């Protein structure tokens, strides 16, 4: 499948990306791809090994005469976000990604594309295979489970990597280079809430929010896109005047994806049905106006169910839960005062569910300041303690502090001007790159992050601009060759 990819430029990179598209690799299911890459490395005569967690490293010796050059680490993550449109059945553990080209962009059919971070991985593999490239010692580091927990980077063995310079290939903007990123943590909230049978005259409804764009919970959090969990909770709160009680709820699938869909089942007195349906129609118009220009596909639907469930949250638990969800931090919390137009702190209500009284929430909080992450985590805990829920913080990872005067950055800027005729914008990103974690384990590494132009990451709208991949490849090759002529350096 995806034979057309091998006719794109640069062919070596796209051939490897085709392999990634054809090899299922959602987070936690990277083992097949790791084995495939190990076999590829052996055919290429390249050394490979894994650390204690299973992260993969492939090494290539320096070109003759370049043995003393700084060692370069090419870094990316093997996993991809698994998101498909609701009407498109796709098993990310067994089905390949089907791609197509339209108007200069590569897309996937009804699913995420996996350009994040498949193109970075493909570029690193292509560099290892490029026999025309003059280079110093090379290491390609491929981490696991980045999209769900950063676990690969968090558990990376210390003292394992040998290089002096790390090129993170997991950025998504053309003409930009990143030198810092936000840290973050998962906030997990759970509770067993009391239930009771519905009233004798109760009827059941399903309320659904669908058609939203969604997107990356860091890169896109400032764009005003609708969060399906936030919107559906608003709808349910507005219906409380009709004595509704929540039966079940499911919204979102991943904590780092802005939820595109959410569904709730509720019960209410039969004589309130007509009024409730009118209110839903009013709310739909209100929300459609709010989302105009950013989420034109928004849909709010209500449908009556034939069977009435045996149990629903009792009235008090239903009201308390919806109140807590309604005021939970969601979206941009604070903009940076020192970095123009950069989000400093945010929260994403990524996954919410209620089933048989069991409530579960997973939010991802991000901040350029570790104190911002701690503050939001404390606010979640304080809020949900009021309804008797348990809150825990998981998979916390540090931010990446910028070094704006690094020699590596200056080298990249010079090459960008020479090759592309413009100086790259130097940025700090409101997303969780693995650089912050790696810097904590290897504090002497110089590092930058750059990549091709990707839009709609973490959603089925994900796409990459083909011309930007050519520029990315040109820059990457030039930087590695330039570093091969640099003065020998040892880890400080």
From TrEMBL:
Biological processes annotated in GO: proteolysis
Cofactor needs: Co(2+); Zn(2+)
UniProt catalytic activity: Hydrolysis of dipeptides, preferentially hydrophobic dipeptides including prolyl amino acids
InterPro entries for the chain: Peptidase_M20, Peptidase_M20_dimer, Peptidase_M20C
EC number in record: 3.4.13.18
Keywords, sorted A to Z: Cobalt, Dipeptidase, Hydrolase, Metal-binding, Metalloprotease, Protease, Zinc
Keyword Hydrolase: yes
SUPFAM superfamilies: Zn-dependent exopeptidases
Family affiliation: Belongs to the peptidase M20C family.
Protein name: Cytosol non-specific dipeptidase
Native source organism of the sequence: Candidatus Halomonas stercoripullorum
């Amino acid at each position: 499948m995806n034979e057309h990819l091998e006719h794109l430029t640069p062919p070596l990179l796209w051939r490897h990306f085709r392999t990634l598209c054809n090899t299922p690799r959602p987070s936690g299911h990277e083992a097949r791809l790791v084995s495939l890459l190990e076999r590829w490395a052996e055919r290429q005569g390249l050394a490979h090994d894994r650390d204690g967690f299973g992260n993969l490293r492939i090494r290539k010796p320096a070109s003759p005469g370049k043995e003393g050059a700084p060692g370069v680490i090419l870094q990316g993550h093997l996993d991809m976000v698994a998101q498909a449109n609701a009407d498109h059945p796709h098993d990310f553990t067994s089905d390949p990604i089907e791609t197509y080209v339209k108007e200069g962009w590569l897309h996937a059919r009804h699913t995420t594309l996996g350009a994040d971070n498949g193109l970075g991985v493909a570029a690193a593999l292509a560099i290892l295979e490029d026999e025309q490239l003059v280079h110093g010692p090379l290491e390609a580091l491929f981490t696991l489970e980045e999209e769900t927990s950063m676990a690969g980077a968090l558990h990376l063995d210390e003292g394992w990597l040998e290089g002096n310079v790390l090129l993170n290939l997991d950025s998504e903007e053309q003409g930009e280079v990143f030198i810092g990123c936000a840290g973050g943590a998962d906030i997990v909230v759970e509770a067993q809430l009391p239930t009771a049978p519905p009233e004798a005259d109760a009827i059941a409804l399903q309320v659904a929010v669908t058609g939203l764009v969604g997107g990356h919970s860091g890169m896109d959090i400032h764009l005003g896109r609708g969060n399906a969990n936030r919107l559906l909770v608003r709808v349910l709160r507005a219906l409380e005047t009709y004595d509704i009680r929540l039966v079940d709820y499911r919204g979102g699938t991943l904590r780092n994806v802005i939820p595109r869909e959410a569904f709730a089942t509720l019960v209410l007195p039969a004589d309130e049905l007509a009024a409730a349906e009118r209110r839903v129609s009013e709310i739909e118009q209100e929300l459609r106006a709010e989302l105009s220009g950013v989420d034109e596909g928004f849909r709010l639907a209500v449908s009556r169910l034939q069977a009435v469930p045996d149990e629903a949250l009792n009235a008090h638990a239903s009201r308390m839960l919806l109140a807590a969800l309604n005021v939970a931090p969601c979206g941009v919390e604070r903009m940076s005062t020192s970095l123009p137009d950069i989000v400093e702190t945010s929260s994403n209500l990524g996954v919410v569910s209620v089933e048989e009284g069991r409530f579960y929430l997973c939010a991802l909080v991000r901040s350029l300041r570790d104190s911002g992450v701690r503050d939001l985590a404390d606010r979640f805990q304080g809020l949900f303690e009021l309804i008797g829920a348990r809150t825990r913080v998981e998979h916390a990872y540090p931010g990446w502090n910028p070094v704006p005067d690094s020699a590596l950055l200056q080298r990249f800027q010079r090459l960008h001007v020479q090759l592309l005729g413009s100086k790259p914008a130097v940025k700090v990103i409101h997303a969780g790159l693995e650089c912050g974690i790696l810097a904590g384990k290897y504090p002497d590494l110089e590092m930058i992050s750059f990549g091709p132009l990707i839009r709609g990451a973490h959603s089925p709208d994900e796409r990459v601009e083909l011309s930007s991949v050519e520029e990315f490849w040109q820059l990457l090759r030039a930087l590695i060759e330039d570093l091969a002529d640099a003065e020998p350096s040892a880890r400080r």
